[in-house]
Design brief:
single chain, about 120 residues, alpha+beta, 4-stranded mixed sheet, 4 helices
C-alpha cells in the first residue's frame, strides 16, 4: 500500500505530513506540485481537490486535503497505538488547539511578512 501525497517540499504543512508519515513508518509516493507552473489548477487535480491546495492525500481513492485533517487521519488509521492521538477529549482538544495555531495565527502573520517584503 502506497499513499500518494500531492505536495510541495518547501510547504510547512506538507512537511508536517511528511513527519507524521515518517513517525508512523508509512511510505509516501510524493507527487511534486509546482505552484509556479500552476499544477494545482490542472483539471485532474482540481477534480481531486476543488480548493487546489497542498498537501492532498490519496489513500486508495479516498482524498483528503488540509494538513491537519491528513495528520489526524493517518494517525487514527495507521498508528499501532493511541499515543499520538489519545482517546481523551481534552487531550485531543489540546492537540487541535496546537495544530490550528499555525493556520489561525502563525501562518497568516508569515504571509503578511512575505507579502510586505515582496511589495518593496
Amino acid at each position: 500500500m502506497v499513499l500518494k501525497l500531492y505536495s510541495l517540499d518547501t510547504s510547512p504543512p506538507v512537511r508536517a505530513v511528511y513527519l507524521t508519515a515518517e513517525i508512523l513508518g508509512l511510505q509516501l509516493e510524493r507527487i511534486h506540485m509546482s505552484l509556479m507552473n500552476e499544477d494545482q489548477l490542472r483539471p485532474e487535480f482540481v477534480k481531486l481537490n476543488p480548493q487546489h491546495t497542498v498537501p492532498t492525500l490519496d489513500d486508495d481513492g479516498k482524498i483528503i486535503w488540509d494538513s491537519h485533517a491528513i495528520m489526524i487521519y493517518l494517525v487514527t488509521k495507521y498508528s499501532k497505538d493511541r499515543s499520538l492521538y489519545p482517546e481523551d477529549p481534552f487531550t485531543r482538544a489540546v492537540i487541535h488547539q496546537k495544530q490550528h495555531f499555525d493556520s489561525g495565527l502563525a501562518f497568516p502573520a508569515f504571509i503578511r511578512i512575505v507579502v510586505s517584503f515582496r511589495n518593496r
